[in-house]
Amino acid sequence: MDIRSIRDEIGATYERMKQRVEAAQAADTPLTGEQEEHHTRDEARLSALIKMRDEAYALLEAQTAAMDKRAAQIATMAQERGGGSALERRIDKGTDSEQYRSAWVHYLVGGYRNLSDMEQRALSEGTDTLGGFLPVTEFYTTLIEKRLQANAMRQVADTIPMGSFKTDIPIEATLASAAYVAEASPATDNTGTFGNVILSPNTLRAFCKVSNELLADAPSRGPAFNIQTILASQMGRSMGAAEEAAFTTGDGSGKPKGIFTYTTAGTISSIADFETAAVGTVTMTDLVNCIYALPRQYRANAKWVMADATFGLIRRMTQTVATNATGTSYAPFAWSLGDGRLGDNGEPDRLLGYPVVCVSNAPAFGNGARIAVFGDTSYYKIGEREGVSVKVASETFLANNQTGYFGFARHDGKMTLGESCVYLEVKAS
User: Fold this and answer.
1) pTM over 0.70, yes/no
2) H-run or E-run covering 201
3) How remote is the C-alpha of 210 from its chain's centroid?
């Protein structure tokens, strides 16, 4: 089992144990013998899963440390021997070389024209198709981290590289049929059909300006004030927010097509709408029915995608409680389950046992609105054409004594299998 599967089973096991205990408490009766036996087995399984999870994390950390150590050894050998194998030369000459790092810092502060000939040659190692330059590892790592935090869709979609201008993804348009036949009966054509989804890179641009006084004074403010980190954080957050909006509700024109915007059948099978039973409202019964409206084969890796406000409304849903006196309480089917591992961001919120991903640009709750997507979101593909690059405009904003910074990314996003998800739609009338 991989780490994600282990974590998902931990959540499911914990949920079963919690529901069993709460049911017994609500009935004011102890667990039956059979229930006690199931509970004991779940406790043993939970302990085993937690141990497996910790062992998997330990193995992953050990493998990462070993790879880092080997890379450092190869880089050291390349420096000492002045060359060596092709791999050693790539490590020594790439965007993480000392020459590139030095040229990159000078480029951010003074622009390309102020670089020496040697620095311009070093920086040419990271030139991209838009005339910008690939950032060094520290800058890129900070940018990607902030972008991922601001874009929840990147955490649940499947990201693939785009090796050319367009990438074709073969898809199964219709399934071949099978049927029992009588002896010697003629064969009939029941062949399935195939199609393709084309990912074409769209250019996303982030822009910010920094005063030249701030650039000049930055070194004297100490290492805590780092222009690279500030720029990377700003670009990462702004790119992440724009990407999430496109991956959620983008119309596919000059930008990715969002997961909420598949309204009609096209290249892929259409995403089905599941409508709530009553006008302008959603109940726990609607949520359960929505789950089972999704074909069984997609439920194992299914997730909910919705706006924060929508999930807040669902968590505030109440139910009638039959006790000595009639009352209400919060519906006990959504809570946060975390394992405390900050590096893994803990376990996600869950709704009826399935992870919930909250995005900023999902449709708001209202009559006729599609308020959630439920399904296997790995069938939403994000194609990456190339890494993020940065271009410095040192003279464009000279009148204001400022330097402009442009960040560029090229990608696309589309669904490849409509039946892998269903929409939860509020009944309009």
Assistant:
1) no
2) none
3) 30
